[in-house]
Design a protein that fits this description.
The complex is a heterodimer.
Chain A: H1 2-19, E1 25-29, H2 32-36, H3 39-52, E2 58-62, E3 74-77, E4 83-86, H4 91-103, E5 112-115, H5 152-157, H6 162-168, H7 172-182, H8 194-203, E6 210-215, H9 224-231, H10 233-247, E7 251-256, H11 261-276, E8 292-297, H12 307-314, E9 338-342, H13 343-355, H14 357-360, E10 364-365, E11 368-369, E12 371-378, E13 384-389, H15 394-401, E14 409-414, E15 420-423, H16 433-438, E16 447-452, H17 457-471, H18 477-494, H19 501-516, H20 520-524, H21 527-535, H22 537-546, E17 558-562, H23 572-576, E18 582-583, E19 591-592, H24 602-609, E20 617-621
Parallel strand pairs in A: 1-2, 6-7, 6-9, 7-8, 12-16
Antiparallel strand pairs in A: 1-3, 3-4, 4-5, 10-11, 12-13, 14-15, 14-16, 17-20, 18-19
Chain B: H1 5-9, H2 19-30, H3 35-45, H4 49-58, E1 70-75, H5 78-82, H6 85-96, E2 109-114, E3 126-128, E4 131-133, H7 138-145
Parallel strand pairs in B: 1-2
Antiparallel strand pairs in B: 1-3, 3-4
Classes of the chains: A alpha/beta, B alpha+beta.
The complex binds flavin mononucleotide (FMN) and FE2/S2 (inorganic) cluster.
Chain lengths: ~625, ~150
C-alpha cells in the first residue's frame, strides 16, 4: 500500500507539472475514432513541424472526449495558458493553427472550439459549456479525452484506484451494501440490480469464483464500451478489482471483441502497469485479496454477449446460450460461480466507492440512479459519445445535445437490434429502463440511432431482423425459423411484392418468437419490427399498396431521373456511371436509360458534390395513393 | 507446411478453452486456417477435427481460404447502414466482381462485411487492411482502391 501511496504523490506532482507546463503541450485525440478521422497523420505532421521550427514541445495522445463530429481534435496548451481545443483539424488548418498558436503564441480563435481553463479566455467558450456538452453529466467519462490512458500516473493523479483502496478497508459485504445503496443497475442491457447478483455469487458455495468483464459490445452501431476502454482503461480495471473483491473472486477475465485492436492493446499495457504497481497478483496492496486478470478475445458472434453463450465461448465451445437456471452467479464458467458485468457498470464502480453511495444517488431518479453513456449516431447533427443522467428526455438528447436532425426527424432506435424504433410522439419520454420498456423498446447497452425522412423504416426493420437472424445461434426453433420467416416477408415488402396479410403475419410471428425463444437474442429480436408496425404502419402500407418508398431507399421501388432543366451537362455523372446508363454530349442535358441503371447512386453523389453540377439527378418513388 | 505452427501450439496448454485463442493465433500467423493446420491442432488438443470445424465455423472471424493481399471490410453496422454502407458493399462487389467472403482471382483484394467497427459517428466506414476510412462515398472509395496494389 505504501509503495503505491508514494507513487501517487509522484504522479500528482507529474500531473501538476503538466498543468503548470514550462513547454507547450499538444494533445491529440487518438482513440479509434480520432484515428479514423486522421489523428495519426496529424501527429506525424506536428512532429515534423516542431522539429523544423526547433520548438520544444510535447505531444500527448489522449482518448476520446465524446463529440466525434469534431474529430480530429488537437489541443494546444502553452505555459501559463489554458488548453485550447481545435476541431476538425486537417493537414492544412493544422499548419495555420501551429503557426499562430505555437510560434506566434496567439490561439487561433476562429479555428478553435473551446478551452479548458478555469476563467474566461479570449473569445473562446469553455469546452464543457458547448451546447453538446453542457447538458451532460460526466461520471463514467470524467477522464476521457483529458488523461493519457496509457500512463497509469495520469490515472493515479486524478484519484484513480482511490475507490478500490476504500473498498479494501471495507468488508466485501459492505462494498455490496454500498453498491446497493447507490442503486446501481447493470449497464449491459437488462438493468438488473448489480448488488443482487453479486450477493447470490458471494453466498454461492465454491472455492473458485470468476468475474468477467463483458466487452463484447455486439450492438452494431454502439461504441460506448470501446471508447471507455480506450480512453480510461484503468477505470474499468479498477472496477474489476472492486467487483472481484466484493464477490470473492480471484480470477478476472475480460471478454472483448477482436474488432477492437486498440482497446485490447491498451488493456494489455494497463494490466502490465497494474502488475508493476502491486495492483494484481497475490496480497494486493498488502491485503489478503488475490486477483488476476486475463484477456480473452471474442471471435465475432453477437450472441456471445449473452452471459451463458459468452461462458461457452470462453470454454472453447460454440457460443450457444443455455437455459437458466442455474444462473451463472451459481454455476458459470467451468461450473464455478461467475459474475458477468458490463464495461460501463464496472467503470462506474470506482466513482461510487470513491465518492460514496449518497453522492451517486444525487444523479438520475428513484429506481434509475446515476448516469448512462450513449452513442448517439445516425442522421444527427452532432454525433458522438454522450453521458446523461437517467431520466433525461429523449428530446433533450436529440435536440439539445445532438443539435437536432439533418432533415426532418423520423424515429430513434434505442437498444440496438433488440430494441425498438420510437416515433416523434415519444420525444418527451424520459430515458430510463421502465419508460423505454413501456414504449416497447429497451435501454440496451446504449446505442441511439437517429433517423430522418431519408431513412426507410421498413428497410431499417429488415436490417435489424436480418442481423439477428444471421446471428441466431440456431439452437431454438422459434428464433432460428421464426426470424428467417420474418426476414423473408420483409424482403418481399421492400421489393414491392408484399400483400396486406403480411402485416398480421409479421405481428403473429413476432409475438410468438418473443414468447418462445430460449435466450435474450430471440426474445428481443422482433422488437424493431413490432414497434415499427405499431408506430409507422403507414409506411408499411405504402410499400405494399402503392409500391412506394417515401424515403427512396428500397431499390425496387425507386428510379433515378435527370431533371433536364437543371442539368448543366457537366458530364461528371457520365464518367462515374459504371454501366453507361447516362449519356449525352457536354453542355447538353444528359439522358438516363432506366433499363441500364443499377441504382448505385454514383451519379447522384457527384451531382451533389461537384460544384459545376446542378443537383439535377433525383431519386423518385411512386406517388402516394392510399 | 510452415514450421512455426508447433511453436504457436507449444505456448498453449492442452485444454479446450485454448482452442479459440489458438485458432486466432494461427489465423493471424497464416492468414487463414488451412486443413493441415486443423489436423495439427486436433492432434495437439486431442479433439476431433470435426469439433474444431464446428467451433471455428460458428464464429465470423475465422476463414478457411486464403485472404487477398489487401482485405476490405465494409461496415454494415446500423449507423453505417442508415448512411449507405450497403451501397458501398454493392459497388465493391460489382467493381471487384466477387461477392462478400471471396477473394479476387488475382489475389489483390478480399472482401468482407463487418458489423460495426466502433467509429459509428464517422459513418459510413470502410476498413482496408489496418486503415479505417470514415465518411465514405462511392466515388471516394473508387479513388481509394487505386492506392492498394
Ligand atoms: C443477444 C445478447 C447480446 C448481448 N450483448 C451484450 C454486450 O455486448 N455487452 C454487454 O455488456 N451485455 C450484453 N448482453 C447482456 C448480458 O447478457 C448481461 O446481461 C450483461 O453483460 C450483464 O452485465 P450488467 O449486469 O453489468 O449489465 C447481451 C445479451 C443478449 C441476450
Ligand atoms: S456502424 Fe459502422 S462503425 Fe459502427
Amino acid at each position: 500500500m505504501n509503495k503505491l501511496k508514494e507513487k501517487i504523490v509522484l504522479a500528482k506532482k507529474k500531473w501538476e507539472e503538466l498543468e503548470n507546463n514550462r513547454e507547450p503541450i499538444i494533445f491529440v485525440g487518438a482513440a479509434s475514432c480520432g484515428r479514423a478521422a486522421g489523428a495519426l497523420e496529424l501527429i506525424n505532421e506536428i512532429g515534423t513541424f516542431i522539429k523544423d521550427h526547433n520548438i520544444k514541445a510535447r505531444i500527448i495522445q489522449v482518448g476520446c472526449i465524446g463529440p466525434c463530429y469534431l474529430e480530429p481534435l488537437v489541443d494546444i496548451k502553452l505555459p501559463g495558458e489554458p488548453r485550447v481545443s481545435y476541431n476538425n483539424v486537417n493537414t492544412k488548418t493544422l499548419q495555420v493553427i501551429l503557426k499562430s498558436h505555437l510560434i506566434e503564441g496567439k490561439p487561433h480563435v476562429k479555428l478553435s472550439i473551446g478551452h479548458f481553463g478555469k476563467d474566461r479566455y479570449k473569445d473562446i467558450p469553455h469546452f464543457f459549456e458547448l451546447p453538446m456538452l453542457k447538458p451532460q453529466v460526466r461520471i463514467v467519462l470524467r477522464n476521457c479525452g483529458l488523461i493519457d490512458p496509457e500512463d497509469i500516473d495520469h490515472y493515479l493523479a486524478v484519484d484513480g484506484y482511490q475507490g478500490f483502496m476504500n473498498a479494501l478497508t471495507m468488508k466485501p459485504d459492505d462494498v455490496i451494501a454500498t453498491v446497493r445503496q447507490a442503486g446501481l443497475r447493470g449497464r449491459g442491457g437488462a438493468g438488473f440490480p448489480t448488488f443482487r447478483k453479486w450477493t447470490v455469487c458471494r453466498n454461492a458455495p465454491g472455492e473458485q469464483k470468476y468475474l468477467i468483464c463483458n466487452a463484447d459490445e455486439g450492438d452494431p452501431g454502439a461504441f460506448m464500451n470501446r471508447s471507455l476502454i480506450e480512453s480510461d482503461t484503468h477505470a474499468v480495471l479498477e472496477g474489476m478489482l472492486i467487483a472481484g473483491y466484493a464477490i470473492g473472486a480471484s480470477k478476472g477475465i475480460i471478454y472483448i471483441r477482436a474488432e477492437y485492436p486498440l482497446a485490447i492493446e491498451r488493456l494489455k499495457n494497463a494490466l502490465q502497469q497494474m502488475r508493476e504497481n502491486g495492483l494484481l497478483g497475490n496480497n494486493i496492496l498488502g491485503s489478503n485479496f488475490n486477483f488476476d486478470i486475463k484477456i480473452k478475445e471474442g471471435a465475432g458472434a453477437f450472441v456471445c454477449g449473452e452471459e451463458t453463450a459468452l461462458i461457452g465461448s470462453i470454454e472453447g465451445k460454440r457460443g450457444m446460450p443455455r437455459s437458466r437456471p442455474p444462473f451463472p452467479a451459481i454455476a458459470g464458467l467451468f461450473g464455478c460461480p461467475t459474475i458477468i458485468n458490463n464495461v460501463e457498470t464496472l467503470g462506474t464502480l470506482p466513482n461510487i466507492l470513491r465518492n460514496g453511495a449518497e453522492w451517486y444517488t444525487r444523479y438520475g431518479k428513484e429506481g434509475n440512479r446515476g448516469t448512462k453513456t450513449f452513442s448517439l449516431v445516425g442522421k444527427i447533427r452532432r454525433p458522438g459519445l454522450i453521458e446523461v443522467q437517467l431520466g433525461t428526455p429523449l428530446k433533450e438528447i436529440i435536440f439539445d445535445i445532438g443539435g437536432g436532425v439533418q432533415k426532418n426527424f423520423k424515429a430513434i432506435q434505442t437498444g440496438g437490434p433488440s430494441g425498438g424504433c420510437l416515433s416523434e410522439e415519444f420525444l418527451e419520454l424520459p430515458v430510463d429502463y421502465e419508460s423505454l420498456a413501456s414504449a416497447g423498446s429497451i435501454m440496451g447497452s446504449g446505442g441511439l440511432i437517429v433517423m430522418d425522412e431519408d431513412t426507410c423504416i421498413v428497410d431499417v426493420a429488415k436490417y435489424f431482423l436480418d442481423f439477428t437472424q444471421k446471428e441466431s445461434c440456431g439452437k431454438c426453433v422459434p428464433c432460428r425459423v421464426g426470424t428467417r420467416h420474418m426476414v423473408e416477408i420483409l424482403e418481399r415488402i421492400t421489393h414491392g411484392e408484399g400483400v396486406p396479410e403480411d402485416l398480421l403475419a409479421l405481428r403473429t410471428l413476432g409475438e410468438t418468437i418473443k414468447k418462445g425463444a430460449l435466450c435474450g437474442l430471440g426474445q428481443t429480436a422482433p422488437n424493431p419490427v413490432l414497434t415499427t408496425l405499431r408506430y409507422f404502419r403507414n409506411e408499411y402500407i405504402e410499400h405494399i399498396k402503392d409500391r412506394r418508398c417515401r424515403a427512396t431507399v428500397c431499390k425496387d421501388l425507386i428510379e433515378f431521373r435527370v431533371i433536364k432543366e437543371k442539368c448543366t451537362g457537366c458530364q461528371s455523372c457520365v464518367r462515374v456511371c459504371p454501366t453507361g446508363a447516362i449519356t449525352g454530349p457536354r453542355s447538353e442535358p444528359h439522358n438516363l436509360d432506366p433499363t441500364k441503371c443499377i441504382k448505385c447512386r454514383s451519379c447522384y453523389e457527384v451531382c451533389r458534390y461537384e460544384a459545376i453540377a446542378g443537383d439535377a439527378i433525383v431519386i423518385r418513388s411512386a406517388e402516394k395513393k392510399s | 507446411m510452415p514450421e512455426n505452427i508447433d511453436s504457436i501450439l507449444s505456448q498453449y496448454s492442452r485444454t479446450l478453452d485454448e482452442l479459440i485463442p489458438i485458432l486466432q493465433d494461427v489465423q493471424s500467423e497464416f492468414g487463414y486456417i488451412g486443413s493441415e493446420l486443423v489436423k495439427k491442432i486436433s492432434r495437439y488438443l486431442r479433439i476431433s477435427e470435426n469439433q474444431i470445424y464446428g467451433v471455428a465455423s460458428f464464429y465470423a472471424q475465422f476463414r478457411f481460404t486464403a485472404p487477398g493481399r489487401n482485405s476490405i471490410r465494409v461496415c454494415l453496422g446500423t449507423a453505417c447502414h442508415v448512411r449507405g454502407g450497403a451501397t458501398l458493399l454493392e459497388m465493391l462487389e460489382r467493381g471487384l466482381e466477387i461477392t462478400c467472403g471471396e477473394t479476387t482471382p488475382d489475389g489483390r483484394f478480399d472482401l468482407e462485411r463487418v458489423a460495426c467497427l466502433g467509429c459509428c459517428a464517422l459513418s459510413p466506414v470502410v476498413q482496408i487492411n489496418k486503415n479505417i476510412y470514415s465518411r465514405m462515398t462511392v466515388t471516394k472509395l473508387t479513388e481509394l482502391l487505386k492506392v492498394y496494389e
